[in-house]
Amino acid sequence: MADMVSIFMSIGLNEQKAKETLKNEALSSTLKKAIEQARGLLGSASIDKTAATMLYNMVTRLKDPTRLSFLTEYIITRKINSELQLSAALDFIKSHPQENLDRLEFEAACGVGVVVTPEQIEDAVELIIRKHKDQLLAERYRFNMGILMGEARTALKWADGKIVKNEVDMQVLHLLGPKTEADLEKKPKVYFYSVFLKERNRCNYKNVIFWPNSEANTEGKSLMEQLRGEALKFHKPGENYKTEGYVVTPNTMNLLKKHLEETGGQVRTRFPPEPNGILHIGHAKAINFNFGYAKANNGICFLRYDDTNPEKEEEKYFTAIKEMVEWLGYKPYAVTHASDQFQLLYDLAVDLIRRGHAYVCHQRGEELKGHNIPPSPWRERPVEESLLLFDRMRKGMFAEGEVTLRMKMVMEDGKMDPVAYRIKYTPHHRTGDTWCIYPTYDYTHCLCDSIENITHSLCTKEFQARRSSYFWLCNALDLYCPVQWEYGRLNLTYTVVSKRKIIKLVETGIVRDWDDPRLFTLTALRRRGFPPQAINNFCARVGVTVAQTTMEPHLLEACVREVLNDTAPRAMAILEPLKVTITNLPTSTEVRVPDFPANEAKGSHVVPFSKTIFIEQSDFREVMEKGYKRLTPDQPVGLRHAGYVISVQRVIKDGCGKVCELEVTCASSDSVEKPKAFIHWVSDPLRCEVRLYESLFLHKNPEDPAEVPAGFLSDINPNSLTVIGSALVDRSVGKAKVFDKFQFERVGYFSLDPDSTSEKLVFNRTVTLKEDPGKI
Question: What is the pLDDT of residue 230?
Fold first, then answer.
């Protein structure tokens, strides 16, 4: 060990760094070989400091050790002598895994022999400064100097970065002169994230990180624009090996060639839900990302049910998942099931055992929990013995939990030998009693991706720990290996989306079912009246993020209002009716009401107007108050769309002293002074039930013990649902179908609920109008 420390210290590592390096056996071995090769090339000369640093950096980043001597030669002979050249060399090797490299092509890609003179640097920077001169003079030192450096580095790829920066700084100083006090003032922060219209100022953006870097800007960009082409820096089909961390085997290029022949270079993604629950708002992001990425790049997306756990799967979930995908506007290229491949997956498991990569284990489930479990005593059992036992598992000769098939590998989170197959004596919804052993997610997912020739396996960040097992298993079986890309989950405050917790809410009667409009499952959002376009817009505006994103519901509601404002026809409804008799109305008539007052060309409907109308109780006050603009005994009010202004003549009260009716007179709005306000009304209306929804929980994070010590069930908002059983609505909505949406003028946006009958319509309030209080 002391000898190795001395060897490492000979290239400039301090003693502590040398000892830390020794802890990594693979790195130590490779570094020792590199040093020995370097000494062989140098003879009696020592390795200079620059070359030693380059050598160490190369070894720590080299993924293919067969290229060690090749790169060592270039470093020691000073053909590669900068970090920029080294990065280019490593990238070239990663993208050219074939055995014989073209040295001329390699040297051209790495800038070997290229000399950039000071005169060339000066001339190139001068051109760039001239290009941006007007903006520089206008913005002075507030100008983004990174733009200048970026263009200079592009024009002078192999120049020394420090020299380039010094030249840029010098020429900027020459143009602008020294910084003034005004230049030193802090530039105000500007949020370009205009996703949420007027409510954006209430949002905390600090945790929003866009892929692939935090400088991305989604303002005004559709989801397709965010996902198209180079936007995400994803690999092109067939160029999987260019992805950081992708494992290249001797057969990789042949497998990729075959993959391209079968797919024609087409982008292929998949959305792989487990059919054991209803999709929620987080899944909407996954659906938009998987289907959207394929659509944006002229590819295809599979809907694949990960149906490997027969104990929890029900047909209603299969149906609801497909329905929600299509509701969001996406059509799967094909609907597949993991169970379609049960026989092939079994055959591959047998092959995995034969290759020495899997074994049958008798450790019980409780022994396998956690991350520091001891190695299985059966890990090295003979292949033939594991094959025999696996066959006996298949034939039902063991009890549940008695044996499993485990893979010989260590996951990124340190978990050792994950389970590939377990026994479950539960009939499968598609295969019945054919199987009593079922594959796990860790075994099934990557293999189904490979079988379907998926190019981009997009999944949420929690699956990053499974990436190494994903690559390992495909390579262990010598199969085409897709690339797994992870993105951050989308969460909302004031809700729970866990299947287990939603089931608890249903079982305790707090909510009616998975589609209760207070939940954020997709079926619940549809029932509440959220348009699919609004959900898609919300996902697009949140952006594709690496970090987990937690948003507030009002931001989603802003997207809903934006869509419904353009698509929901207007109607009039009264939630708390007050009867009004117009004593001087000559005769009953009809009033034409525009469906969209801002664009009357989009249509209209007719409503009756008679001597008896109903207004909101809140639109009348017996005693005038400062700032109140609606009806009082001393203040007239206009009736929307009717062309009349009404004035109170008599206030009628019931035995308890409550106002129950008004007698008024009307005058044409053309013949009197314009009133301070116009209110909505109904005449000869339909009776209906209206359900008003508020947040289901009182706290932002009901699952957080720090906020809600007694648990999420103790945090229920008692006012989350208000039912108004005797509301009134105009007859224009009488023929509405379930999920039809309306704007009830001055009240909010509403959607017709499936509980509606021919005798009684039921409306759910989707969102409020958020109008200026002065208008109401």
Answer: 60
Half-sphere exposure of 299 (CA within 13 A, CB side): 27
Q: Is the peptide bond before 212 cis (omega within 30 degrees of 0)?
A: yes
| DSSP-derived secondary structure letter, 298 | T
CB within 8 A of 511, min separation 6: which ones? 502, 505, 518, 519, 696
Say how far apart CA 229 and CA 209 lie, in whole Å: 20
SS3 582: strand
Q: CA angle 539-543-549, nearest 5°?
A: 85
Categorize the per-residue pLDDT at 189 as very low, low, confident or very high, splitting at 50, 70 and 90: very low
Across the range 194-215, mean pLDDT stands at 37
229 C-beta neighbours (distance < 10 Å), count: 10
Residue whose C-alpha is closest to residue 551's, from 215, 273, 195, 198: 195
Q: How many helices (H) and strands (E) does the chain have?
A: 24, 26
Query: How much of the chain exceeds pLDDT 70, in percent?
Result: 93
Question: pLDDT tens, 549-584?
Answer: 889 999 999 999 999 999 999 999 999 999 999 999
Token representation of residue 628? 């109140």
Q: Any idea which residues carry the catalytic annotation?
A: 274, 489, 499
Tokens of 275: 């059919």
Residue 609 backbone dihedrals phi, psi, to 5 degrees: -140, 110
Per-residue model confidence as pLDDT tens digits over 634-650: 999 999 999 999 999 99
Q: How confident is the model at residue 668 (pLDDT cuts 50, 70, 90)?
A: very high
Q: 608 vs 565, 569, 729, CA distance in Å?
A: 25, 18, 12
End-to-end CA distance of the chain: 82
Q: Measure the CA angle with vertex 282, ends 340 and 464; round to 5°.
A: 70
pLDDT of residue 468: 84
- 């290009």: which residue's tokens? 131
- Whether residue 198 is predicted with pLDDT greater than 80 in this model: the reply is no
The secondary structure element, H or E, covering residue 57 is helix 49-61
Contact 9, 34 (CB under 8 A): no
Q: Nearest 5°: phi and psi at 661?
A: -160, 150
Query: Which residue has 């800038």 as its token pair?
Result: 111
Give the pLDDT band (50/70/90) at residue 720. very high
* 363-376 residue pLDDT tens: 987 777 766 678 89
Structure tokens at 540: 């697009």
pLDDT tens column, 55-72: 888 888 887 788 899 999
Using CA atoms, how far apart are residues 9 and 704, in angstroms rounded to an integer? 50
Confidence of residue 547 (pLDDT cuts 50, 70, 90): confident
Which CA distances in Å does 149 have to 130, 286, 540? Answer: 14, 37, 31
Using CA atoms, how far apart are residues 478 and 352, in angstroms rounded to an integer? Answer: 10
H or E, element range at 48? none
CB burial of 497-529 (b: ≥16 within 10 Å; e: otherwise) equals bebebbebbeeeebbbebbbbbbbbbbbbbbbb
Tell me which residue of 348, 336, 345 sits closest to 306, measured CA to CA: 336
Min mean pLDDT across 36-45, 365-374, 380-389 is at 365-374
Single-letter residue type at 152: A
**Cα–chain center distance at 709:** 29
CB-count burial class (<10 Å; 0-12, 13-18, 19+) for 179: exposed
Burial class (CB in 10 A: 0-12, 13-18, 19+), 635: middle
Q: In degrees rounded to 5, what are phi and psi of residue 616?
A: -70, 140
Mean of per-residue pLDDT scores for the chain: 88
Largest CA distance in the chain: 116
Q: Give 453's contacts (C-beta < 8 A, 6+ positions apart).
A: 259, 262, 263, 268, 480, 482
Average pLDDT (432-442) is: 95
Sheet hosting strand 334-337, strand order edge to edge: 268-271, 300-305, 334-337
Nearest to 379 by CA among 396, 357, 350, 359: 359
CA 625, distance to chain mean position in Å, is: 49
